[in-house]
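Mods, move this if it's the wrong board.
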Amino acid sequence: MTDPRGAAGSVFPASVRDAFGLTGPARQLPGGEGRSVRIGATVLKPTEDGPEARWTAEQLANVDADGFRLARPLPARDGRWVVDGWSAADFVEGEPGASGRWAELLAAGRAFHAALAPWPRPTFLETRTHPWALADRVAWGEATLTVPPPVVLLHSRLESARSPVTADCQLVHGDLSGNVLFAEGQPPAIIDFSPYWRPAAYADAIIAVDGLLWYGAGRDLVPLAWSSPDFPQLLVRALIFRLIAGGLRGLGTGVAAQAELAAFEAAIAEVEALLR
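Not the wrong board. Structure tokens:
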């Protein structure tokens, strides 16, 4: 790739390249909706939330990576973490692919969350309005919305199964399944931090749900991920989170509608069985 494009229809200006001191050709990276661009050993990514990107970069820059690698944020030459809507991070070697590596992924995620445990709750979490933030609040009973029609019945089943959770909250990565890279002989690398304020085991529940929904994982993933007495209820919330976010983004419509809904139906049935 020679055209420095990130998100569809956007081009990062020369000022971004200059601000981060980058030279050489730009190449679009796979994954992440084609939004990231690599120049040398640096990855540039557009950000739609400047306060979140700045706060996250400041924190991640000082994380002690033990048991995992990290795509560590890089400041611009003048110290800014975000320049004209773009942030930068180290390029880390590895390929995504959780299937067959669930134990490694879970271990890396737990080590990462242990490192995050002292972090305070950031204020930007309360003002985010993207589909995943809305779905997270719905999953935890902190917000209501008009549920998209294709997922109404599935959501109703999950809501009827939800009961209180007592685990303490901390900052967690809410989208690890596709954002951990594996390289031979190296610890897994964590990228694209998606922050939420939830119990640490909730991140494991999202991994388990993602495995059931999208990675063809078998039933043995759930006991492997089980890391809290509240785990069945965390699975319920993880399913609501993915279902509502998907519904807001068109889940259940288009040519793949029936297969998508069937995957949720099967995963919900698995969790309902645990609750009996």
